[in-house]
Fold these 2 entries.
Entry 1:
Amino acid sequence: MDAEIIAVGSELLTPARIDTNSLYLTGKLNALGVEVVAKTIVGDDRDRLREAVRLAAGRSQIVILTGGLGPTEDDVTRDAVAAALGRQQQLRPEIVAWIEQRFARMKRKMAEINQRQAFVIEGAEVLPNDRGTAPGQWIECEPAPRVVMLLPGPPRELEPMFESLCVPRLERLLPPQVIRTLHFRAAGITESDLDQLIAPVYTKYSNPVTTILAAPGDIQIFLRARCASQAEAEALNAEVGPQIAALLGDRIYSRNGDPLEAVVGNLLRERGATLSVAESATGGMLAARITSIPGSSDYFSGGFLVYNDRMKHELLGVDAKLLEKYTAVSEPVAEAMAVGARRATGSTYALSITGVAGPGGGTEAAPVGTVFIGLAGPTDCHVHRSRFIGDRERVRALAAQTALNLLRKKLAGG
Amino acid sequence: MDAEIIAVGSELLTPARIDTNSLYLTGKLNALGVEVVAKTIVGDDRDRLREAVRLAAGRSQIVILTGGLGPTEDDVTRDAVAAALGRQQQLRPEIVAWIEQRFARMKRKMAEINQRQAFVIEGAEVLPNDRGTAPGQWIECEPAPRVVMLLPGPPRELEPMFESLCVPRLERLLPPQVIRTLHFRAAGITESDLDQLIAPVYTKYSNPVTTILAAPGDIQIFLRARCASQAEAEALNAEVGPQIAALLGDRIYSRNGDPLEAVVGNLLRERGATLSVAESATGGMLAARITSIPGSSDYFSGGFLVYNDRMKHELLGVDAKLLEKYTAVSEPVAEAMAVGARRATGSTYALSITGVAGPGGGTEAAPVGTVFIGLAGPTDCHVHRSRFIGDRERVRALAAQTALNLLRKKLAGG
């Protein structure tokens, strides 16, 4: 079965914005054995959108629209789809009531225009939205099987709606086929090195299909086996997965798709250990990732954001002479920061990060991108020096990722 | 004038790949006063691509195709465009010779299939490719002005070709037209309330066009005026912009698109003031945003991540009796955290955040989503209580945004 995705919104036609929903949806559809054959991005323009829907619905069995379900004049998706399918819309009082309740919970009154979001296309099933005021719509059309979906634009609304309401409906619609996915994540290796290492294995197999998705310092590897039965799909993955895992060794940090901060959190919890941080260059990014995991208060003690020399000295007890002699971006200061954070919080481990994120501030001894990461534990403290290439955000992201990965290796090895 | 971009290639329909060429092209076209009204991604499929070209060329004056100009069976762009426009193709011996020379320079022999790249659509101008074997094509159509461009997919081939060969041709084709944009950002108001407030103004004008883009706690408003001259475009924006700004009042925090953390940073710098933070629920997210701005060390002193009661007491001096009596998520503790951070760092201002981000941890007095934000300054300390709706990441993001906005108002007002 073929699918097309239509993203709606003039902001998606500007030079800086990309449509990330379609990437998420493509992954989910592929996992169901559905191929995406075209993607379209249309601005907030009723006529163009109507034409796009008519073309897509005329040739593909699954058409997914994202965005344009808001309450304003700009939000044209409902009208355009109704026009393309030649159907009417009805105001559903129960949806109005639901939106009103949502506003009431926030101690606010629903604005008149939010009524627009309660219009439903004839024959559509309403997909409730737990996280926003725009309900989705699921519309089955002739000749069956054929479906048009209207989903909200914000990923945090779209993703749970698609997962919990659309995937089960699609599974009923689709021919029986089982897909089993292995999801590895790796750190401490570049995408091209990783590809060179594992390509000799995965190119031998057309099933499972291997996909590699790289972000700074973090690579995800998906093996997707499509078979008539679960046993066959699992057998294929069991043949290929271990070969890839063996080549990557301890660079693989997750075999179930968990992010690095969750893996590190689990390792700390299992060992009854706690962690504190002392961040300079990353200014809170490392701790923000650690605390993004629910329950992280079990093992995260706290930390220090020490953005200048005085704070490093006063809050962490870094010797002023050390700062003067070596500067803040140095191995001895990284070590003193980690040791100081551990002492002040009483945590089992402490991570410190000091570096030059740029664009300014580089020196000959520590050019932009230089980062020292300290890891203090019960018996020792090690400092790791890196030189990251990229802009400020990339350097900071890589520093946080590298710090987490150092702790993971320490915990897994010890 | 309107443009559409069609990216060709099945690899662009996988979960991990994005079409970056269209972002580059959109930037260049906008600079010429051309708006991109739709983008399409089609796989290597002759029929679907022919339909897409026919639709685009039927309604937009500029159609740009990227990719699909290679030598293999998969490379369908030439054939699909020729079919859509109802034109023939001719083999051009001089292009064959040119491709052969290119191979010869690399000490290789041209493969037979590369001849395909020497086919040119009737009436097209050939755009030489300095960096690859696929020449581009520039095809003017009726009714003039109307043009279809075929460009190679690799950015390093496409970008110089577009810049040096297409931009000058487009400039000759285009009516003199200038685009000027106003970019406001607002906080402390929901999208629907904002829209209700300003729609009476912006709906009166078709030029400038108003676009609203909402993220949690942060709304962007773009006014884009398209005119024959810069003076006219600026005059239109100067007519509409202030009306919208007046309605929104101090909810507008930026008139040039700067994010809130940059605006707060500038206010602090102008006043020679410094800031520290004490974060519990947000665990570093607030500081990570503040320090994402280059030069933030001028005003960011540092901070404390106090993720449990002991740290709140030991690092910030929050009275243990206060914690026991009111719990950590309370107004007195938020106040004590802000005052403690300010005292420990000697900063002019301090922001504290304590709350229940969820999903667990809610109580009757402080259900999930409850957040207290403290703001301590030289003369006073205020605490703001919020109840945010949403998941853990949303509650944390809204808490950080609200804290920054409280400080902005304090600085702007004081």
Entry 2:
Amino acid sequence: MAKNDQPYLGIDLGGTNIQAGVIGSDNQLIATDRLKTKADGGQDAVVQRIVKVVDSVLDKAKVKVKDVAGLGIGAPGAVNHKKGIVINAVNLRWVDFPLGKQLEKELGIPIVVDNDVNVGTWGEYMAGAGKDHDELLGIFVGTGIGGGLVLNGDLYHGHHLTAGEIGHTIINADAGLGRRTLENLASRTNIVNQLKQLILANHPSDISKLTDGDLDRVRSKILAEAFTNDDKLTQVVIGQAAHYIGASIANTVTLLSLPCVVVGGGLTEALQAEWIKLIRDVFEEYVFPPELSKCKIVASELGDDAGTIGAALLAKQRLEKD
Amino acid sequence: MAKNDQPYLGIDLGGTNIQAGVIGSDNQLIATDRLKTKADGGQDAVVQRIVKVVDSVLDKAKVKVKDVAGLGIGAPGAVNHKKGIVINAVNLRWVDFPLGKQLEKELGIPIVVDNDVNVGTWGEYMAGAGKDHDELLGIFVGTGIGGGLVLNGDLYHGHHLTAGEIGHTIINADAGLGRRTLENLASRTNIVNQLKQLILANHPSDISKLTDGDLDRVRSKILAEAFTNDDKLTQVVIGQAAHYIGASIANTVTLLSLPCVVVGGGLTEALQAEWIKLIRDVFEEYVFPPELSKCKIVASELGDDAGTIGAALLAKQRLEKD
């Protein structure tokens, strides 16, 4: 069993970057580092890059690997957390890869693997915006929309281990194909595509100016800037996305009677309270019974560190429970 | 602690009828009975009627009340199962009524109170169509649409104790008021109302003949008869309802990664396999990831007895756990 005062490593493995962090016994980050994933190099090369960023973050933290109690890692895609296997990660082009076993062989410490969104949700639950609650939904809006659930004080994976896929729930059953799921209606990808289409159809918007005419450069910060500067087109499109997100959150709270929802992702970090308010207004209109409108809807507190902190804290929970 | 071989009482308290059952150590019904609720008489009168039907069902089963290990009761509405309080039951016009305490005073045995849909779901989980699974959604389509969840082998109530309200989830966020929630779109009430409107607008249908022209007499059996006799209007309207139910079930399975869904209620009992097939086809189209289409979708096995059996078995589980 791990000692309570040993540090833990957390890794957030993305298609583009590998982020690493070391947390101490107070669950705070001691050091962080990052490295490009270079997924094109294949599975073994990515494992070597994880080992490399682990070495450098341990150097920064002045901790030796033999003194680390364990490492948690969040991977983008379907994960069998019981076996430490990445079942399918589209961004990395991995299928049934035993990431836990490989990393354990390289580093010689216990490894805990889970899905990246689950790990981010766990971070917010243990050390972020959800830490005063026993149950919560974490929902992360980015190029896609992912969700994670904490029920009865533990991550909820479900019988087939895929729980939390709120982005793939139907919110508009009567709409045409491609306009039915939450992700298709409200991801940042969809917000940007809608704005592009409307601007190309000559709807006036400051977005063109803010991107110097290159609409492929629209990111969360630019969306937030246009929204805050009262750009009507951006406000309408973001308002629609918030409407679908608020309705989907209401559905989840209605089904699971939750006390707290943490909303994360780039747009949340850029827009903060204004974005949460748009979502909350719709949520309150739709949630049932009406008393559930007391459920807290809050912005992520850990932001970009939710994954590394959550991964480290998940390793801590799992290994200290064993 | 209750002895394993003692019988348990189960009560399904409805707005119209009180159903009672006694189960033996093999979890099978020994005897059943029913009595009108007569909710107009008020809370205390209803408690006396519950005592009356308990006496008569125990007589039938040749069991004395002092030999009963406990009584479970499902009440229609919001229930605090921890305190045995009916928080709000619209059909009975009860608010914050301590049903558990009152019945314990009258009968002198331990009482377990829960919501009627939870209790029906528990019955199907323990002794019906869901008994080979560790987790399930029970969905009951009638005048309204109710749901219950078993997660990790236990009824899931959620932080605010209201979990399972699938009928109040949004499935058509862009539709007009009254056409957004599952219950508004797919309850038997809505199916009948839609048929009435269409028939009054001169759409041809056998329903008029089957009800001798009195459209207020449409019940599940008549709907099933018209559907099976190839009445096109009934098939279209029932098909639409099944579409929304299939999409809502897909949403729940996508979110919770469930292995089993049990569908109950009068229309399910009347139509059986044809109804389940309509629901399943939509479910398979929408569930994510696609591997979850292996989730079983099955008709209730206990039918009208799900409530009494479930209530008795819930009392057994709670009291033997204590």
